[in-house]
Write a structure and sequence with these properties.
This protein is an alpha+beta fold and 151 residues long. The chain has helices at 2-25, 75-82, 134-150; strands spanning 87-91, 94-100, 104-113, 116-126. Strands 1-2-3-4 form a four-stranded antiparallel beta sheet.
Length: 151
Amino acid sequence: MQLAKAFQFGLAFLIYLLAACAKHDALPTATTPPPEPPKANINPGNVVSSVPKSKPKIVEQNIDDDPNQLLGLAHHNVSNRLGLPGFVRRDGYAEIWQYLAKTCILDIYLYSKNNTFKVNYVEVRGRGGVKFSRRDCFVQLLRAHFNATRG
C-alpha cells in the first residue's frame, strides 16, 4: 500500500515538472531573434526607407584647427575645449599638460601668473613615426573631446 502511494506521488510530481517545463519553454529566450522592423512603403518614383542606415552626423562648421589658438588661455578654458589632459607635470611655476591622439601628442605649457595658469607655448609632435599635420592632430583632439561630451 505504501509503495502504491509513493508511486502515485512520484507520478504526480513528474507530471507537475513536465507541466512547469512546458510553460517555461513557451517564454521567449535570449536566442529568440527580435521581431523584424516594419517594412517601408516604396513608391516607384520615390524610394523611402524607414530605418536610417547610420547615426546622423553632427556637422562641424568653422572649426579653428590652429593649435596656437590656445595661447594665452587660462587652464579652465583649455580643459573646456580639450577635456582633462592625459598627463600633467608640474615644475615650479609651470605645468605641462599632455593630450594623446592616434597619430600625435599635444603638449601645452602653462605658466602661473597672478595665481592663474595660462598657456604660454604649444607643441605638437608625431607618435610612432606616423606622418601628421599639426592642424589634423588638433582637430583629432577637438573631435575626441566633442564626442566624449556629446555621448
